[in-house]
Design goal:
binds zinc ion, five-stranded parallel beta sheet, 7 strands, two-stranded parallel ribbon, 253 residues, 2 domains
């Protein structure tokens, strides 16, 4: 919707420029500047899911609780460790699984559900350029993953997170056709960048606010190494995580 409104707005500006500035010496500089601003806005819309530019994603909770989400699993080693930590703290999390990884690690995917967590669709093959695929290809990728995920858990809310979080107008149409909800995040752990847990936890604890949806990856050692310290320190600040009981109905419509 934002994209459509913005495109219409810029169309009006271009018409205005062609109509009123056509004979002016400023015509080309103004035209180029307008075009560059439009490209910049669209670029930010593609990269930053939280802007909700192409897709109306959910990036924070309506409540004061904090939701932990884990992408790119299941992983035979790291996911297991994360499940243990979540169990110990009675925290319910949302795992965005990759279809082909579920096929390789089916037992871990089953365990995630058995432990009472939610699972969501993170595409079948996690193609980093998926945002630039056609609508049909995006729909095909997600449906292929849904078939695999439905074998793990039939009765689950339809939740989707795009690979690397990039979206385009093709996603707008794909999400509509799939009748799914796009889940983003408000706080990113940057566990793909930090090599050791100390700095990562320090930054993350400082940034965590009530209502945050936090993005982690259950494929990285730094994530499983950091998780318990992060949970303890955030709880010490009086912030509460979504519990295993609450996660069951968190995305019920
Ligand atoms: Zn991912």
């Amino acid at each position: 919707m934002k994209h459509k409104v913005n495109s219409f707005f810029f169309l009006l500006i271009f018409i205005f420029e062609f109509y009123f500035l056509n004979d002016s010496e400023y015509f080309y500089p103004v035209l180029i500047c307008t075009f560059l601003i439009l490209i910049l806005i669209i670029g930010c819309g593609v990269v930053f899911l939280k802007l909700r530019y192409f897709v109306p994603s959910i990036n924070k909770l309506a409540s004061d609780k904090v939701l932990l989400t884990f992408d790119d699993g299941p992983d035979s080693v790291i996911t297991e460790k994360i499940l243990e930590i979540l169990e110990k703290n009675n925290i319910g999390a949302l795992f965005f699984l990759i279809g082909e990884k579920v096929e390789q690690n089916r037992a871990i995917a089953d365990k995630i559900v058995k432990c009472g967590h939610l699972i969501g669709n993170h595409s079948y093959s996690h193609n980093n350029f998926m945002a630039f695929s056609s609508t049909n290809e995006i729909v095909k990728e997600c449906r292929k993953a849904d078939i695999v995920l439905n074998k793990v858990c039939k009765d689950r809310p339809s939740l989707f997170r795009p690979p690397i979080g990039y979206t385009t107008p093709n996603y707008t149409r794909a999400v509509e056709r799939l009748k799914t909800r796009c889940i983003g995040w408000r706080l990113r752990s940057y566990d793909t960048i930090y090599k050791t847990s100390e700095k990562m936890v320090k930054r993350l604890v400082l940034k965590t606010r009530k209502g945050d949806i936090v993005l982690f990856h259950d494929t990285l050692k730094v994530t499983s190494d950091s998780l318990q310290t992060y949970i303890t320190e955030v709880q010490n600040n009086g912030i509460i995580f979504v519990s295993k009981e609450e996660i069951k109905t968190l995305f019920d419509e």
